[in-house]
Amino acid sequence: MSQPLIGSLSMDLDNKWAYLRAAGHENWESSSSYFDIAVPRIVELLGELDLPLTVFLVGRDLDVDEDVRTIRMFDQLPSWEAANHSLNHLPWMHTMSDSEIESEIMITHDRIVSTIGTRPVGFRGPGFSCPAEVLRVLIKNQYSYDASIFPTSMAPIARAVFLARTNLKGEQREKAKKLYGGFASMRNPNRPFMRHEEVDGETFPLQEIPVTTLPFLRTPIHFSYVTFLASFSVTVAKMYFSMSLNLCRMTGTSPSLLLHPPDFLGCEDDTDMAYFPGMKLKREEKLSFMRWALGKFAREFDVRTMLDQTQTLATANGFVPQPATT
Length: 326
Description:
It contains eleven helices and nine strands. The protein is an alpha/beta fold and 326 residues long. GO terms for molecular function: hydrolase activity, acting on carbon-nitrogen (but not peptide) bonds.
């Protein structure tokens, strides 16, 4: 019997304020955190299924003691990895200056070290925004991988739906028009690959772990999309997710699946998040679906943290990372 494909499971731990700001709500800064609701459910369910997790942390939340205490609940998991998701979760890093990009990454880096006690080596850009300067900062600071590629055929549609549901105006709306990339995003590989970027006249490699999409069609298979399907029909959502995992196995695609905190919240938990995909489902119905989907993923793949996934793939491909210049 052949060994199961290696996969990884990650979560963008975006707090409520980030979603409300992205949706154009004026009172986003005074919004409450939902970490104390979502994180215990995530830890309980993943612990039940013995699943590891890579958590992309936003630096702004690491400056709030109560949120840090809640985040430390991930210590209860079999294993988890703290990764970098920028300081302010602005999903248009492609509009920032080089110095702003470096601050977004490195302030969060230092906060992860001081609050979690581990050195992050993975990064994901908010809104999957990853200009070349992001890669240069990661290489200079000896990161192992980037995870900002979302090679979906539905990027323009997802962007149009987002803009239609939000109250963004003026400059922010113009910046949001570049979210998720365009159809060009489909040209990116749908499996882990090696990127190369020039730093101080020398080219360095950096592993890229894309957010996996459905092989061939390139439609999303992350859990916010699948729970959105479940809000119309749980049966259809289960068929779609099962087909997605089957196609990953058939094509040898090592899946990296993505979670968000609202994937563990029901419509009765937070009415402010009603616009978010999948938030029409009631709590018990959504948690039941997530237990099924994550359980299936755990049974059919060798699920690792993203760092473990990159190290295993690097060894298999004979790649030895070179130390970056500082």
